[in-house]
Specification:
GO molecular function: hydrolase activity
Structural class: alpha/beta
Strand content: 15-25%
Largest sheet: 9 strands, mixed
Organism: Sesamum calycinum
Number of helices: 20
Helix content: 25-40%
Shape: globular
InterPro entries: Metallo-B-lactamas, RibonucZ/Hydroxyglut_hydro, Sec-metab_biosynth-thioest, WH-like_DNA-bd_sf
Keywords: Hydrolase
Protein name: Hydroxyacylglutathione hydrolase
Length: about 675
């Protein structure tokens, strides 16, 4: 089973009423020591007592804990952990003395889905009956049964007590009548609250996450008893943000096919890792209804969704299987970002406004706005949700504390930015360098986007000094992109600095050989090695370039038009250029020189004829003219030639005896490059 992080959840039965089990009040996160933030308090959370299992350095010769399991492999798995300490820790939480006479049974072992970051956590559930008349802490412990817990979960009120996920996963999901979702065996899911299924699926998202949570509602019972036509949309099932990558499309197809035909699809915003699976949904169920904000839908590709949609503003309601859900306008991350509240469980699906760890950057290219973000955060806190469900990472059981943490962090950052400006920082680069001085330089380009949004927010609040020019600040964006972006991006990802210096040193040592024949051999060898290295770099470059395009919106780079390898040529070749005139000329008289080095390379041969022509070789070894051996270098690139200045150094001193040939794709529009190694360039039609 592996030995990652393992938790122990203990189900302690009431000896006088075996339907009841013991719940403990969970300790909330520490306060902020700030009157404003500490005024927002989450309601009490009750869950099964639990503790983390620690690995044993060596197996115990004997254990005070009596534990049984129907599967011997479970006992073998648990034998590597310190069960005695974990159970004693749990009993201490509830005020019991060490219980040596209690017999424990392993109920189940549950491994959480791949929420990330980090390895999924396993939870071992054990069941035991407390000793008669055992004293317990009345302030932090309660006896509850499954019906009490289900009522609190499914008839949630904003400030009522809450029931945690250990109760739901360990007890309620086995006892309640809920619709089982047909999940492929390659995926794991989590149902919390009841009726809300989370299926993390691999997506084109940003680190430290690798998955996007597909949220699925398939109500088995109508808890609200709602119906009628008072909703903007209704259906028997709902899925939110089908954003898995193409490798997971078969699994998504499996899920969608098993859902009821009357399906509603809702997307929180347009980023790839939230809509990449829409085409699969449309293919499996063309009758599905898509809900999206207008600003979100207009950014969704027609390849992802070509049918109509129901536009929403963020104040409407929908009905799924008799249950009511409210749409919440939540701009900030993007201008079309929308959240959703499941009324019965008071669960808030927040999209990318919050994530399981850290915070998502705001997308300035799609209307991301810091002022909107603050307003949305306060709006969420006023809702007093029982749980936050992000699209990346685990659910959060302390919603108000998490939201206050976001506010505090962003305000502290804004205060640091204001201090930088007050101390003389005028440009974006100056502010980033001051504010993020202790942060890895490779992250500065990402931080620059939020700095820009914070400065706009400060300007909106009239907090900027009078001598600070927004016009000059905005004009500094290109300067930041041109200098810091290219260097930091290359150094942190491509390692170009090391790579280029290594090739230069290798070629320099090769060309320094004096013996003529050895020089030719070494020259060819050096060229071969350099070409192989070049192709490796080009391959890595394409991956890096593609990775950058994937995350340019999610990581909130406001220089979205920049690529790791921008196009080298800005204009197409003129039809009247000397190159084209030479290609169109005709010469019917051929001597030996013209036959060996033809000037007109246009032909009408088929591929088979051309291969036959190229296979011709002279039978006489001695050449009838003075011949200088040559080495040909062919570069297969997409767009510009990376490392062009490096090849300039390689060919330096041979300007009159070198020539390059470019064969672009027919759809390419390229003009001659300006670097030295390609001063004589032939352009041939493909």
């Amino acid at each position: 089973m592996g030995t990652g992080k393992v938790n122990l959840a203990v189900i302690i039965k009431n000896p006088s009423n075996k339907e009841e089990f013991l719940l403990t009040k969970q300790t909330p996160p520490p306060k902020f020591n700030d009157p404003e933030y500490d005024s927002y308090q989450d309601s009490d959370l009750w869950d099964l007592p639990s503790a983390q299992l620690s690995l044993l350095d060596s197996p115990l010769s004997s254990s005070q804990v009596q534990i049984e399991a129907g599967d011997n492999s479970l006992l073998e798995f648990l034998s590597g952990f310190d069960l005695d300490s974990a159970i004693n820790q749990v009993l201490g939480q509830v005020g019991f003395q060490k219980a040596t006479k209690v017999k424990w049974n392993v109920s189940k072992v549950v491994e959480e889905p791949e929420f990330g970051p980090g390895v999924p956590v396993k939870t071992v559930y054990i069941v035991g009956e407390s000793e008669p008349n055992a004293a317990m802490s009345q302030d932090c412990c309660k006896w509850r049964n499954t019906k009490d817990c289900a009522d609190l979960l499914l008839e949630a009120k904003p400030h009522n007590d809450r029931i945690g996920p250990l109760v739901v996963v360990g007890l309620l999901n086995d006892s309640m009548e809920i619709t089982k979702l047909n999940i492929p065996p390659t995926l794991r899911s989590q149902e919390y609250p009841p009726g809300v299924k989370l299926v993390p699926m691999r997506s084109r998202t940003a680190k430290p996450f690798h998955t996007t949570n597909l949220v699925v509602f398939v109500p088995g019972t109508s808890y609200d008893g709602l119906g009628g036509d008072n909703f903007i949309a209704s259906g028997d099932a709902l899925i939110i943000d089908p954003g898995c990558n193409s490798a997971m499309h078969k699994e998504l197809e499996h899920i969608v096919t098993a859902l009821p035909r009357k399906l509603v699809v809702f997307v929180t915003h347009h980023h790839h890792d939230h809509v990449d699976g829409l085409s699969v949904v449309q293919k499996c169920n063309p009758d599905a209804t898509l809900l999206a904000h207008e600003n979100t839908f207009r950014r969704i590709s027609k390849d992802d969704w070509s049918l109509g949609y129901v536009p929403v503003l963020g104040s409407e309601e929908i009905c799924i299987g008799g249950q009511r859900l409210k749409l919440i306008s939540a701009p900030g991350h993007t201008d079309g970002h929308t959240a959703l509240v499941h009324v019965a469980t008071n669960s808030l699906i927040v999209g990318d406004h919050c994530v399981g760890q850290g915070s998502a950057l705001l997308d300035i290219t799609s209307g991301g706005n810091m002022s909107d973000y603050f307003q949305t955060t306060y709006k969420f806190m006023e809702l007093s949700p029982h749980v936050l469900i992000p699209m990346h990472g685990r659910v959060n059981m302390w919603p108000k504390h998490m939201l206050c943490g976001y506010l505090k962090n962003r305000r502290n950052r804004e205060a640091s930015i204001l201090k930088a400006i007050q101390e003389g920082a005028k440009t974006l680069f100056d502010i980033v360098a001051y504010t993020y001085a202790e942060v890895d330089r490779s992250l500065w380009i990402h931080a620059a986007s939020n700095v820009r949004l914070h400065v706009d927010h400060l300007a909106l609040q009239n907090k900027l000094p009078q001598d600070f020019s927004l016009e000059n600040f905005n004009g500094s964006l290109a300067e930041f992109a041109g200098s810091e972006f290219s260097m930091q991006r290359f150094h942190s990802t491509c390692k170009l600095n090391f790579f280029s210096r290594w090739i230069l040193e290798y070629l320099r040592s090769t060309l320094s050989i004096q013996h003529h024949h050895l020089q030719i051999v070494k020259f060819v060898g050096a060229g071969t090695v350099a070409a192989i290295a070049f192709f490796v770099f080009q391959w890595r470059g394409m991956i890096i370039n593609d990775h950058f395009k994937k995350f340019v919106l999610y990581e909130d780079l406001h220089f979205s038009s920049l690529n790791a390898f921008p196009p080298l040529f800005s204009s197409s070749v003129s039809p009247q250029s000397p190159c084209m005139q030479r290609c169109n000329s005709s010469n019917t008289t051929y001597g030996l020189k013209e036959w060996i080095s033809p000037k007109d390379l246009w032909h009408s041969m088929t591929d088979e004829e051309l291969m036959w022509r190229a296979s011709m070789v002279p039978c006489i070894v001695i050449y009838p003219f003075n011949r200088t051996p040559k080495v040909a270098f062919m570069f297969l690139t997409r767009g510009r030639l990376p490392l062009a200045p490096l090849w300039d150094v390689f060919f330096r001193g041979h300007e009159g005896s070198s020539q390059s040939t470019s064969i672009p794709h027919r759809s390419s529009h390229m003009s001659p490059p300006s670097h030295r190694c390609s001063t004589n360039v032939e352009y041939l039609a493909r």
